[in-house]
Amino acid sequence: MNHDVTADSTNRRRWLQTASLGFGIAGLAGLFQQLQAAELSPQQRLLQPHFVPRAKRVILLFMNGGPSHVDTFDPKPALATHAGQKPSEKETGRAKAGYMPSPFRFLPHGSSGVVMSELFPHLSQCADDLCVIRSMHTDVPNHEPGLIIMHSGVQQPTRPSIGSWVTYGLGTENQNLPGYVVLGPRRPVVGPHLWSNSFLPGAYQGMAVNTQDMQVDRLVTDLKHPTLSRADQRKQLDLLAGLNRLHADQRQGDATLEAQIQAMEVAFSMQMEASAAFDISQETQATRDLYGNTLFGRQCLLARRLSERGVRFVTSYYLTPGGNQPWDTHTNNDDGHRKLCADSDRATAALLTDLKQRGLLEDTLVIWTGEFGRTPYAQPNDKGKQGRDHHHSAFTTVLAGGGVKGGLMYGASDELGMFAVENRVHVHDLHATVLHLLGIDHEQLTYRYSGRDFRLTDVHGQVVQGILA
């Protein structure tokens, strides 16, 4: 799985990329950008993993802004004892308000006794399927670099995202749909960098879908040609393909051109496949009610529909309709988490339940996380209700399905939730483990660029053996 890259771009190819065939040019940017890279498309590549995988696909549920670990999955009763006491500047780097206990009750659930906040009444019913990592930590407590690290392993927007690495390594199981799809209203902070292919061929960039309007022709723009029938489009595409073949014969099987031809075929095929895959109205009312009629609930339902149709990696961002980060509770942390968890809890539990009933959870890895946690101490403010600041030295990530142990609480932060102290898991370790569950050795999945071999985990990362089933 080590490939070199050759770049070549001509006026003719740029014209081919913008030819108006009515097959979702705007929504299929990931199939067309940088296709000059000499590499097969993911639709042509369905590769064998390094070893037998436990998971076939990934659904990443991303809580933008950073949920508070001490209010959700990591109870810290000692905070009540130290309430109001200020942590030292040595611990925080700057003076803060005092420690703030969580107002929420924590109880064990399921036969495994997984402990979580009362804010998750639905997810608590799935406790025996959950693997709760309480010892996550990352490098910085700022949104932009924190988001990029969680998606690509580095702070700068210069490397491919994990979804791009996965589709590059394994390809897709459905030749009529993209291998990597990103769901969310508008663009989050940092935006396309979070699903960027970077130096990987453009076919591995995530296809971003604006879920503001769930009508299929709004989700995937330009899906249907405004005037030509499918038969006429087929004739047009066949003509272009014939011209491309003549050109290819003169260039001795140019891989760049082959990738472009394949991309056009996939885009044309999407006109039929996408109409069904993206249409959640085809679900029963009972199923739609299970997820809830909210933006995130509809996204989770759509994520399931795409995953069961062979999309390899789906990311669902929890954002406000305006694209803001709702979990960034600098003020009014408690009320904010009551509202946020009520929505996320129902939709996440529905997704797990639905996948399990369909026999898909066993080989679908579901990840619930943010870019970091929130401080165990309060953030000073003059507006009344206190919030919590960004916190990178300890937070929680929840996994389910796809070969992880269910009913497990793994690792620990200290008694106040300040630092991960037991079985510490860095983001690099999480990435290594996700690839491992998909059957990929994170040290072997490399791509040669600019004179060196790159990988998702760079020179870091250990598979977290303790969470593997």
Give helix % range: 25-40%
Roughly how many Å is the radius of gyration? 23 Å
The appropriate CATH architecture is 3-Layer(aba) Sandwich
Structural class: alpha/beta
CATH fold annotation:
Alkaline Phosphatase, subunit A
Q: Per the principal axes of the C-alpha atoms, what is the gross shape?
A: globular
Q: At the first level of CATH, what is the class?
A: Alpha Beta
Helix count, DSSP H or I runs of 4 or more residues? 13
Write the layout of secondary structure elements.
Layout: H1 11-17, H2 29-32, E1 57-63, H3 78-81, H4 89-92, E2 106-109, E3 114-117, E4 130-137, H5 143-152, H6 162-170, E5 180-184, E6 207-210, H7 216-219, H8 230-250, H9 255-277, H10 285-291, H11 295-308, E7 313-318, H12 333-357, E8 364-369, E9 373-379, E10 387-391, E11 395-400, E12 408-410, E13 412-413, E14 420-422, E15 425-426, H13 427-437, E16 447-449, E17 452-454
Structural summary, described in words:
The chain is built from 13 helices and 17 strands. By secondary structure, the chain is of the alpha/beta class. The protein has a single domain (11-467), classed as Alkaline Phosphatase, subunit A (3-Layer(aba) Sandwich), CATH 3.40.720. Strands 1, 4, 5, 6, 7, 8, 11, 12 and 15 form a 9-stranded mixed beta sheet that branches. A two-stranded antiparallel sheet has the order 2-3. A two-stranded antiparallel ribbon has the order 9-10. Helix 8 (230-250) packs antiparallel against helix 9 and helix 11 (295-308) packs parallel to helix 12. The protein is globular. The chain starts with 10 loop residues before the first helix and ends in a 15-residue tail after the last strand.
